[in-house]
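Lecture notes, part 5. Sequence design as translation. It can be helpful to think of inverse folding as translation between two languages: the language of shapes and the language of residues. The source text, in structure tokens, appears below.
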């Protein structure tokens, strides 16, 4: 079972997950390993007088992408552990 979990973790790390905010104006792609792969920002949402708004849009998109990755990992690992409670070890 340990080998299966390791293989599943390695496979999940190669997957990518997207998060969007601002109606798609900000798009973030993360890997299953939790690294940000890319950020795309529509120039129309860059307001020099309100940099906080752009920051908020990026945070929302990053968190959405990371949640998708975490959810996918939980599903994949949950199938391997047979529903065992591992006390939050999977993310």
């Amino acid at each position: 079972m340990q080998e299966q979990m390791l293989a599943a973790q390695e496979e999940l790390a190669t997957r990518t997950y997207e998060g969007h905010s601002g109606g798609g104006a900000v798009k973030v792609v993360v890997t299953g390993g939790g690294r940000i792969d890319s950020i795309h920002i529509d120039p129309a949402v860059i307001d020099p007088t309100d940099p906080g708004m752009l920051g908020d849009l990026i945070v929302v998109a990053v968190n959405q992408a990371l949640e998708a990755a975490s959810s996918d990992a939980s599903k994949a690992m949950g199938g391997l552990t047979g529903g065992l409670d591992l006390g939050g070890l999977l993310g």
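The translated text above is only one of many valid answers, since several sequences can fold into similar shapes. The mean pLDDT is 87.
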